[in-house]
Amino acid sequence: MKPKMQNDWRGEDNRMLRARPQIWPVVLWPMGAMMIDWTRVDELRAEVGDDGFDEVVDLFLEETDEVIARLLEVDDSALGSDMHFLKGSALNLGLSELAKLCQDGERLCGAGQAAMVDRGVLIHAYHSAKASFRDEIARRAA
Questions:
Q1: Residues 107 and 53 sit within 8 Å (Cβ to Cβ)
Q2: Helix, strand or coil for residue 111?
Q3: How many CB atoms lie within 10 A of CB 125?
Q4: In the predicted model, is pLDDT for residue 140 greater than 60?
Q5: How many angstroms separate the CA atoms of 117 and 107, rounded?
Q6: In sequence order, what are the beta bridge partners of 4?
Q7: Would you say residue 114 has pLDDT above 50?
Q8: What pLDDT shows up at residue 141?
């Protein structure tokens, strides 16, 4: 599947998510195509056990949802810590492409260029990865 360049898009509530001009070039993958490291997901399941896996995933996603929800409002000075948190959560869940975007954003913030981070792209990437993750987990459980 080939990626497509996308300059703006709508979130789950159909509002525009691109809060500022896109100066951070990113290729967006269509929904469901976000890269997930299923080896890492299997490792996580082995670490916490089958019984605890769903609870751990739900906790990660709940905390991550909160950070994603505030990305459009958080000021540039706090963005770096949010990028770091999201990167760690993404890596723990095997969301490798999202982790890479967050790492790039964290580096920009560290270089004093937080305004270059396209928060809308991150939000879209998160929702795409989360949907892919949930769909595949459900498929594997069936």
A1: no
A2: coil
A3: 25
A4: yes
A5: 10
A6: 28
A7: yes
A8: 86
Phi, psi at residue 16, to the nearest 5°?
A: -65, 135
Class of residue 55 by CB neighbours under 10 A (exposed 0-12, middle 13-18, buried 19+): exposed
Q: Which two tokens stand for residue 54?
A: 């769903």
Q: What is the pLDDT of residues 72-83, one digit of tens each?
A: 899 999 999 999
Per the structure block, which two tokens stand in for 61?
Answer: 């996603």
Instruction: Dig out the tokens for 98 from the structure.
Output: 């999202």
Structure tokens at 43: 């490792």
Q: What is the pLDDT of residue 26?
A: 45
Contact, 128 vs 27, CB < 8 A? no
Asked whether the predicted pLDDT for residue 123 surpasses 80, the reply is yes
- C-alpha distances out from residue 55 to 15, 36, 70, Å: 31, 19, 23
Q: Tell me the pLDDT tens digit for each residue of 16-39.
A: 444 443 444 444 444 444 588 999
C-alpha closest to that of 89 among 57, 42, 136, 117: 57
Domains, in order of start, for the chain: 38-141 (1.20.120)
Helix 119-141 and helix 76-92: axis angle, to 10°? 20
Q: Is 92 helix (H, G, I), strand (E, B) or coil?
A: helix
